[in-house]
Specification:
This protein has 88 residues and is mainly beta. It has a six-stranded antiparallel sheet, with no helix packed on it. The protein has one domain: Ribonuclease P/MRP, subunit p29 (SH3 type barrels). 8% of the residues lie in helices and 40% in strands.
Length: 88
């Protein structure tokens, strides 16, 4: 089960997210559901459409299935998702 302690070892796709901080001011406060993840980007389905947010320079506030909020610096996520799952 995904928790605050092991979130880095789990798939992020499907989680609700809020961009709590970003280098690009247009990305601040973007919220929605993560629909895809690459090495450097997180794709978020918002009400206005899909937004691709760079991991570097961003802070993501994830809502876990048990409604716990976890804040993660995007630079900690910069790795291909499949490699991050194996490494963490």
């Amino acid at each position: 089960m995904i928790s605050c302690q092991n979130v880095m070892r789990h798939e992020l796709i499907g989680l609700d997210v809020l961009v709590a901080g970003a280098a690009n001011p247009f990305h601040n406060q973007v919220s929605g559901r993560i629909i895809d993840e690459t090495r450097n980007l997180v794709a978020i389905q918002t009400q206005a459409g899909i937004k691709k947010i760079p991991k570097r320079g961003s802070i993501f506030r994830l809502s876990l299935p048990d409604n716990t909020l976890v804040e993660i610096h995007g630079s900690a996520l910069i790795l291909a998702p499949e490699k991050r799952l194996k490494r963490a």
